[in-house]
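User: What would this chain look like folded?
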Amino acid sequence: MKEKSFLAKALKLVSILIIIIGIGILIKGIINMFSDREPSMFNFPILFFGIFLIVLGSILSQIGMFHKSHHKSAPYDRQQYDSEKTIKCPSCNGINSSQARYCNQCGAKLINFCQFCDTENDYGAEYCSNCGAKLPKQR
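Assistant: Here's the prediction, encoded as structure tokens.
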């Protein structure tokens, strides 16, 4: 899932608020139009203003969606290759997800199981994160 920038979050929030206000104004105009009082020409500008706010909120929402997904000169998804979320294969230097157990390029093992407690440890760990036992060196 892509992370949203502050601007994208702010535009989304503002657009939702504008759409809610527009719907409220539109409903108020419709209720006034069909109430027991005599119809007034003043209701039509209220209806159009409500519709205008709904359209404006929708446009702002689309701008926010464009802003969060638009990356200049990025040939790949940056979050997918973020150093905190990837593992570099020790055999072929291929980039893998931090959840991967085996390299998606060469099939090398990316995890190290403790021989005493069978806990899964990161590749290259020297000691078990569960029991503290020394782990065998991986090739």
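The beta strands are 86-88, 95-97, 111-113, 120-122. If you want, I can go into more detail on any region.
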